[in-house]
Amino acid sequence: MSETLPPPPYPADTKSKGWRFELDLEQLTQSDTWALAGPLARPWLLMLWTTAWQQQPCGALTDDDEIIAARVGMPLELFQEHRKVLMRGWAKASDGRLYHPIITQRVLAMMGKRDAEKIRKANYRARQAASHPPAESREEGGSPPMSHGTTEGRTQDSGGSDATRTSTSTRGIGIPPLEAKDQQNSARTEARASVTEVSHGTEAGRACFAMRKAGLMDANPAHPTLLALLTQGMSTDELVAAAQTAVGKGKGFAYALSVAEGRRRDAATVGSLPAVQIPADLARTTVPGRQGKDPTLAALDRDDALATRPSAEVRAKMAELLGKRPAEQGAS
């Protein structure tokens, strides 16, 4: 029975053209693979990852030692000697190619940024089209004629040009200033809502969707800190709670991630502390007659118990002397 391989993590036509290849230095140097590679194999590790980044699909390698060695410029015998550590973490998918989880994470992050940029541009073009209706539409809507002789007839940016730098804008014709402002704000809200749908199928996308519902509209599913926190097992509820804190303080997405990370770190620290006696317990143990007295009181009680009590004759003599002392003082 043949082994069932997982599907590729992204489409086969995914390219890295125009993308940066970024490495988290702390994550890299603290990884087990980096420690096992040693000084001799580490340069080849970097070469292997950058080579995979330039393949199509991005981040994948052909499952052939000879081809991999040739692409990184490494003698085949040397590659096979270090193959165990160089190929550590790489796994075959159903398309027959090899993928590494860390590089796959980087590719998905760049895809999220690319898709978000496409949506942003599409929404910008839609807003521009909505704010520049054809002349026929303006006439049918009953817009007043332009009057270049008065300030009321001049548009907001009649002296400039739009983002394409090719034509003069007529935005705001026939629309009161407050109403035009409301329309612009509505367009921005729609643009942010449409970006939410970009990576809704991923864990990061679902987390950002929930954070945006909590009011944090700049949540970014491609943020490396968010991806790292999700990899460490952080839940959507933790992120939403941090988002609510950030919104309450007028802060943004980066602040919310810091709050979530700090709370997780504080919880881990508190869980590792030994149990201590609180001041209330200490005060209670100093009350006489209770078990577990203060050490000083316990020592006094112990000394009193060990002391030799005087005999009855001595006590009677002391009582007699004490009884006579006031009379003697009065006679003198």
Descriptive report:
The protein has 332 residues and is mainly α. Among the domains are: 25-99, no CATH class; 108-131 and 173-271, no CATH class. It is 58% helix and 2% strand. It has helices at residues 25-29, 32-53, 65-72, 76-81, 83-86, 101-131, 135-140, 177-196, 203-213, 224-231, 236-248, 253-272, 279-285, 295-306, 312-331, and strands at residues 60-62, 91-92, 97-99. It has a three-stranded antiparallel sheet. A hairpin with a 4-residue loop joins strand 2 and strand 3 (97-99). The longest helix is centred in the middle third of the chain and has 31 residues, at 101-131. The chain is elongated and about 120 Å long. The termini are far apart. Residues 300-311 have a biased composition (Basic and acidic residues). Residues 124-198, 286-311 are annotated as: Disordered. Residues 148-171 have a biased composition (Polar residues).
